[in-house]
Amino acid sequence: MSILLDGKQCALDIENLLKSQIDLINVANQRLPKLVVILVGTNPASLSYVTNKAKACNRVGFLSEIIQLPEDSTLESVIEEVEKLNHDDQVDGILVQLPLPKGLDAKAVIEAIDPNKDVDGLHSVNVTKLVMNEKGFVPCTAKGVVTLLKTYNIPLQGAHAVVLGRSQLVGRPLAQLLSNENCTVTICHSKTVDMPKHTRMADIVIAAIGRPKMITRDYLSEKTVVVDVGINKVDDKLVGDVDFENVVDLVKAISPVPKGVGPMTIVTLLQNTIDAYHLRNGN
Ligand code: GUN
Fold first, then answer.
1. Are 41 and 71 in contact (CB under 8 A)?
2. CB of 50 shorter than 6 A to ligand 1
3. C-alpha span between 180 and 18 (Å, rounded)
4. What domains lie within the chain, and their CATH numbers?
């Protein structure tokens, strides 16, 4: 029987710790941490993600705001909004929900965010810090996966981790973070020859490829710890990149979808926001 890496429970435990930090801030009559999310356009999946982020802020007692900008916003108007938030002393974290509508340069928008408020960890200053193994903001899903592994005492030092996918948002930062944790890291992607050959040798497999149920038992072994980052909608049902039912009786541990990495991403955003708050308060 494999161990279930319960991201929902792990995230709840972290939320409770954050709530007690907020209690202390309230007792001291201090300003509360505030996250602002910018959503450009009306992509329904993005709207649902940003709503979940705002709800999580409410649960732990952070302030939050969603700024909705029209689909046909110009780059200048989005950057102007970001700059207003950079200069707003009440705002600790700024997140621009991706993807942006076609034609808007996401890189230019992200580079406009004050790196000290970049709770998404996507600004080049924070990307460089991650590569240099220095303190900075780390993308939430990547950091959330490592928190989940550490919570379950999965050994990282010396472990062979295979990351499937090399996106800017998940695969690349996760590979770097695991390397910083002294894992030996292999990155597989769409051009990899014989992916199962790599994954079968791994201690840890992290699936972030966006292909529903692609990872079956022929990719894995009884020693594999599997973390499924995939969020795919199939017939109105959420499924991961891993075929859970097919592999669950084989592997050592596995995170489910839903209730796995998803809640970890959100709670990590809260952690990054309170870190930004303390950083800005000089704590
Ligand atoms: N879209 C999907 N996931 C994310 C995320 O972690 N950050 C941002 N900014 N956009 C996303």
1. yes
2. no
3. 26
4. 32-114 (3.40.50.10860), 140-262 (3.40.50.720)
Q: Is the CB of 241 under 6 A from ligand 1?
A: no
At residue 215, the 3 state secondary structure works out as: strand
Residue 131 near ligand 1, beta carbon < 6 Å: no
d(CA 276, CA 283): 10
DSSP string, 142-160: HHHHHHHHHHTT---TT-E
Matching residue, tokens 């990282």: 156
Can you tell me which atom of ligand 1 is nearest the CA of 170? Answer: 6
Does the global pTM surpass 0.85?
yes
Q: Cα–Cα–Cα angle for 136, 258, 21, nearest 5°?
A: 45
Return the number of other C-beta atoms located less than 10 Å from residue 279's C-beta: 14
The per-residue pLDDT string of the chain (283 residues; one tens digit each, 9 = 90 and over) reads 799 999 999 999 999 999 999 999 999 999 999 999 999 999 999 999 999 999 999 999 999 999 999 999 999 999 999 999 999 999 999 999 999 999 999 999 999 999 999 999 999 999 999 999 999 999 999 999 999 999 999 999 999 999 999 999 999 999 999 999 999 999 999 999 999 999 999 999 999 999 999 999 999 999 999 999 999 999 999 999 999 999 999 999 999 999 999 999 999 999 999 999 999 998 7
User: Contact, 254 vs 222, CB < 8 A?
Assistant: no
Which atom, in ligand 1's list, is nearest to the CA of 265?
6
**Residue keyed to tokens 């193994």:** 133
CB neighbourhood size of 51 (10 A): 13
Put residue 203 in one of left, alpha, beta given phi > 0 → left and psi -120 to 50 → alpha.
Answer: alpha
Q: How far is CA 271 from CA 60, 65, 237, in A?
A: 11, 17, 29
